[in-house]
Amino acid sequence: MPLILATTTPGEPEIFASLQGEGASMGRPSTFVRLSRCNLACQWCDTAYTWRFEGDNRPHRDDTAFERKANQLTLEEADVAAQVAALPPDRLVVTGGEPLLQGAALARMIGELNAMRPGMHVEIETNGSVAPHAALDPLIHQFNVSPKLAHSGNPAELALIPERLAAWSADPRAFFKFVIAVPDDLDEVLALQQAHAIPGERIFLMPEGRSSEVVRQRSAWLADLCMTRGLRFTDRLHIHLWGDTRGT
């Protein structure tokens, strides 16, 4: 089955070279592949065009429904691999949507890519609620896991699955990124850290925001919380550089 991708413009897959904007690899030149479809629905999601299509009434603060044909396309795994291999970075970041929903096809694509460009470092960005496909798991060097807190609007029974959080905590490839909107969100992070024995050195706190102004405002107090609790801070570099735009 082909991969289902998001688009930058109708008919153009969202495959692009940029700098990783968040988390443990922030600032590294990377090629991004943005897949479509998600099993969760964050009300502040900045890529709602990957899941909130016409007829989807899950809540989002913009309340925009996207036309599926203009915002989603399918490509054969080999075609995706060839487009990635043609770009300069030696690091691939697969994002979404929720990439692990397409684990089998993704494994085939990465297999094709490894034949074309041996030595690529592969990261997957995930909401942490889906287990990696057995064929995909050994191909991944780093998982960027972003469990969704209560302010995302997702029910905990869908977003915060205990056995999945425990598995990510036990995997040294997994770095946790929690989106923080208000200082009280930290209480939920600390409870999850304790419940699932998540190592503090693998936890990043990131300000929620889709504009540089909002990100900077929240960074001011979030940096202090990180220092107080011994957790790592991550900015949203791409928002400062290019704004909330596709293909960046």
Could you characterize what this model shows?
With 248 residues, the chain is an alpha/beta fold. The chain contains 8 helices and 11 strands. The strands form 2 sheets. An 8-stranded mixed sheet has the order 3-4-6-7-8-9-10-11. Strand 6, helix 3 and strand 7 (121-126) form a beta-alpha-beta unit. Helix 2 (77-85) crosses helix 3 (103-116). The mean pLDDT is 97.
Helix/strand-derived category reads alpha/beta
User: How many angstroms does the end-to-end distance come to?
Assistant: 27 Å
DSSP strand tally: 11
Strand content: 15-25%
Whole-number average pLDDT?
97
Number of helices: 8
The parts where pLDDT drops under 50 for at least 5 residues are none
Q: What Rg, in angstroms, do the CA atoms define? A: 17 Å
What percentage of residues falls in helices of 4 or more residues? 25-40%
Please state the overall shape, judged from the principal axes of the Cα atoms. globular
Largest sheet at a glance? 8 strands, mixed
Sequence of secondary-structure elements: EEEEHEHEHEEHHEHEHEH
The largest sheet has its strands arranged as 3-4-6-7-8-9-10-11
Multimerization state? single chain
